[in-house]
Amino acid sequence: MALQAHKKIDDAGNEENDDGGDYDDEPVFKFSKVTLSSSVSRKANDDNKSTPDYLSCIAVHERFLVIGKNTGDILITDHLGTIIPQFHIQAHTYPVNAISIDANGDYIASCCQEGRVKISGLFSKNDDQLNAFSRPIKAVCLDPFFSKSKQYVTGDTSLILNERGLLGRHKSTTLFDFKGGLIHTLRWKESLIAVANDRGVGVYDLRARRLVGFEYTEPQPGFAPGIYPSRVSWNDATTLVAACAKTIKIVTIVNDPTNDHQSTVPKKSMNIVMTFKIEFYACGLTSVNRDLFLLGIEDYSIANGVTDPSLTVLQSIDRNYEEKAHDRFVLSRNKDTSPFQFQLEYLPDERCFFILSPYDIIKAEHRNYDDHIDYLISKKRFDEAIQAFEQPKNTTDKPQRHTKRSVYQEYVKELIENGQSKTAVKLFPDVYKTAEEWEEQIQKFIDRKELDIITPYIPTVLPKLNPTAYDKVLETYLSEKKYDKLKELLTTWPSDIYNVTSIDHLTRIKMDDDHTSKTLLECSAILAEKQGNVVKTLDIYLKMRNIQVFQLIDRKNLHSEILPHIETLMTIDKNLTLDMLVNHVDILPVKSVYNVLQKNSRFLHAYLDAVFSKNPSDTRDYYTLQVTLYAEYDTTKLMGFLRKAGSYSIQDAILICEKKKLYPEAVFLYGRAGNGRVALQTILDKLNDIEGAIAFCRETGDQTLWPVLIEASQNKPEFIRGLLNHAGSDMNLKELIDSIRDDLRIPGLRDSLCKIMQDYNIQMSLSESCRKIIVHDCLGLRKKTITLLQSGYSVKDTDLCAKCHNPVYTSGTLTNLPVSVFFCLHVFHTKCIETNPDVCGVCSTTSLFGAA
Q1: PROSITE patterns in the record, alphabetically (predicted)?
Q2: Of the candidates 70, 99, 83, which has an alpha carbon nearest to the alpha carbon of residue 34?
Q3: What is the rounded CA–CA span in Å between residue 582 and residue 600?
């Protein structure tokens, strides 16, 4: 995982600000301490000088670590710090200054302050050596292929090549005398050897046996030489990186164009291609794929020692270097710790770094995706942590240690600690998977008086908790008098997850007949139902006038139990009660319901009306009573009832309607009773409705009513005008006009007469138009008939005479008998019908043919 860069260094060594975004302080590395199985006796900040036991140098190999101590001991451990006893080397009695390992890991070279160099074979002692020099040896380096060449180099003020001479004797050759400046670092790459001393950095070509070049370092003002030693690292066989204090130099090794062509070994030269400054002091360096990894400190003083170190990554991009990480870490040290005591080594196989101080070995590894999630969690950026887990940017970014649950667990803890319990509980189903975890959280929420928050999320199936946990929740709500919550849980939770009997007992203890909460009564009803005592539940709901009683009746099929409680149910919800009664007439007969409701006429009317609307025949025994009830409570439905119902007492109905002055209904009843004259008179006298009177006369079709209507209208101009406006064939218009007195003033008479004349003209016009259409159609049909009669008819040789049943003619014969064809398409020989040639003997009603 790379961080956003905040600094760039170009090939001229200048620093540039990166406008690519804000610097993200997420570290690139994770640091862990490598604990040796036999720890050093002196720790950081320990001023006990009697046991000056510390670590002096380190070398790494893909199979092990080699660690030198100030006591002269050399420890060989695995990468976790476990000492491998069989490889323990007691090489020196003075501090070990440097260690080198060949490429195969078969040989180890070490040097010490007393000038001794020890070559130790791990698997063979045949090539072990112990060579003494006249000066302290600060650096030693094995040929990577030492097992073949038996060569290594050492350094004091000169670079010395050591090898086996004749008869296996030690042979040393001074390759180059640097004339001052003690060599402290040697790095072997193919035929080139990088040398670093107190004065600078140089490269020696072992094949050409000449110094390629030497670059002097700038003196560090205020510091003695060697406080910040030069660190070197080969990037490849042609590129060397050198760091000294705050200066970085990139050196390339190239073939010198002035080389003598007669020489078999090309002459090389050393060029400085880039020099730039950094903001900290470099104490260690390694180059990996052209990227630079620097161990650095911010400051050093003799009085206070070194500051906390950091590991910095400078990424090579084109010809620039861009800072990708600057991760600080903690390293054990004291005020006597100096920068030159730090060492940085790289292990390519594991892509990790080992950092040495006198009292610690720190392993630095690139952070993986789990570490990235750890960082987000540590910074309380849980939304990003969850997103990183669920939606990784790359398919390869798959956490191995973290799970969705572990991320949510940390998130939940943080939310609860910050008082965001409502948000936290939404994540509980993803976090807590066992009953024990849920029970623990429920108890915590009860203790914090936050039970309402977790209740909606408490599982009832997977996982299913211990019944005591559910009991605890219900008892808490009961004790806190949160009866609404208690009712909600009793309704939604299955009854098999808690102790119903125990909760019912506690509920009854809480109940007070005088001041019992309605909600608590509902809880009691629910508990009774869950125990199978539905009758008790029904009684409680009826007592409370609770509308849930209808759900209970339907759910438990209690229709046969409700007959005594119908009036109570009607007061709770009349419509629901009527629907229930009407839909269960088989269980609750009309007569039984009538007996219950007969003292409450309003409820009785509503019930009979509902039954009649669904099935009129069910209330036939109460039709006459219903007339009274409709007249009393719902006159708008009375006319429809009178028309639809049949077997009620018409006389009683007429009396009721007359009493209630329901004259339209009375008119209908008079008409049904056959007393049209009284009905007509009622319309005229009580309703004063000429339009209704005319409609009544036409509806009954009784012609004797028209004279009565005309006579009753003689002194009423409005009635006469109404009759004139509705004059038709069913009314004697002449009689109506003759009945009008000459002195009677009739408003709108002229308009009515004009309308009559217009209607007459329209009628005559329609008659004439119809006559013309009929004449036209008749002429067309006549022409069509004549054309049909004049057309011929094709007779085939397969046609038979309808009388003799012989073919009417024979094909191929020149002469055939004459043939006659009637309009009914029957065919005859003319000879066969000569007795009656104008009549078809088949279609005639009287058979004209005798026996064939």
Answers
A1: CHCR
A2: 83
A3: 18
